[in-house]
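WARN no homologs supplied; continuing
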Amino acid sequence: MAGEFQKDRVLGGDFAGYIGGGGFRGEFAYTWKEKDSNFFRAILNADYSFPHDFYAFIEFYFNGQGTTNKKDYPLFIDDLLSGRIFNLAKHYFAASVIKSVTPLLGLNIYSIFNLNDRSSLVGPAMTYSLATNLEIAASVYFLNGANDSEFGFQQTSYFAFLQYYF
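OK structure emitted
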């Protein structure tokens, strides 16, 4: 796949398959920046459905545009606020476990770890199917880390949403 985003050229691709009974996927993209250094991004993901309606995944994200030094975070604020980037650091690990309690009710706990500054986000969530293609969900983000880290300077967030699929 190729395209352009805010005058930067992007080339990327993905793959998906199975190893044993689990899924294995990856996505990658190389960006040629109009003004700054070019960079590479990639995600590797593995998931598995366990007995008794449990599902889990793990994921590693490499952000070539990010930094390994949290003192450089202020240099990325404009790109973060403009939507050009979503993360500040280079290396992340994520994991999630989901339990279908009933056909209508699901419980989830997910986490994102910034491997560079050691901060994290842990988010338990609950979803309930109100009707065909209509869900309501509630979650909380517990944010941990030093005050100058990506997740540590933020406060706990609570939210809910209604989602309709069409």
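The two ends are 25 Å apart (CA to CA).
OK
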